[in-house]
Amino acid sequence: MKFVLQVFISLQLVVGGYSFVYGQNNALVINGAYINIANGTFANPIYMVVNNGTPAAITRTTGHIISEQEGNFVRWITNNVAVTTNYVFPFGFSNTDYLPVTIHKTSVGVVNNASSIDMSTWATPNTNLTWATSVTNMTGTGGANATNSVIDRWWQIVSLATVTGTADFSYRGTENTTVYPVGPFSGQEWDIPSSSWMTPATGTGAGVTGAAIGTSTGIVLGGRGLGTSTPYILSATVAPLPIELVSFTAACDGTKTHIKWTTASETNVANIELQKSDDMNAWTTIYVAAPSNSSTTAKYNYTYTETGTNTVYYRLQTNNYDGGADLSAVIFNHSCSANNTLSAFYSDNTLNVFSRFDADAKVTYTLYDIAGNKILTGEYTASSGSQLLTLPVNELSNAIYLFRAESNTTYFNQKIIIAR
Q1: Which residue ranges form the domains of the chain, and what is each CATH number?
Q2: Which is deepest, 173, 291, 329, 360, by most CB within 10 Å?
């Protein structure tokens, strides 16, 4: 169910007994209040709607609007206004830090809601999880690396082609956990059609840490996902990924595992470690490659015999000459020495069940919480060969779970940690 707060004349809300929010002359005036938009998800968003296209439709003295979830939107219907008009969305974190988003609109609106702007922003842990909806990786070019190069905050903008301009994003210094904290930081946009990050070539702002508030200005609203959600991040423009990874695969060559990867360019790379894991928690380096450090395509490969019988996960750790390190996305492959295998892992609100059977097999599975209660159960027919079953678990709380799956030939037990 979608909740809409429509702001019109003479709206008055008392917050905390002293601070207040009220509508005056068809405007939202914030004077010491903290307006908390809560419980929205991207699938079922919540909107606070400002049905007035003038910049004065939201006036803020002190206080702010708290979004802090992807689906908690302020919708500002900005139709029928002149060009080069600035709109300040007075967001903030809790009741402490004021983190405004300013849209410098350079387009004239139209008479319908096609020129509305939906905006939300939220902080994340220093891995930027959970990623914004539609984002499938944080390993693109130009600094899109969740751990090392990106401010721990997301911005969602939903608009149509009638809205063009630039934006200024603000963040808390404590959200700057990058290895290059002094910046500068630029806005970087997720391109929905190509499922990749655009180069952060627009906007700039020095990085801040601690209690300070940082701002990056002049971020071009490219609108690569116009009409849908367009996620933005702030990434360190001086810290692009040291390698541009084109492909990374693992496959069986008889009973041996053959791992290959290709880079389009490499910069400042000391070496590249190939690492493996049985549970995606403990990682072991099994091969160290010497880098090409060139702007041309370089191909790498490594073949070894895997002695285990379950699915194995692989990643690349790129070690830089400046002491930093970057991790690739994780790939996986079944053990090439086993005929029938079952395994599972959690990633981005999804429980992934991987199977490999010589012939079709019926698989039953159960997910238990730490107290032994059944949370999820079901069965499916696994086709012969490799197959991946994905189960959405976005409603589950952060906790430790036990996953069990079995066929008539194979039994599997796995501890699953959900940590967003």
Answers
A1: 4-236 (no CATH), 243-333 (2.60.40.10), 341-418 (2.60.40.10)
A2: 291
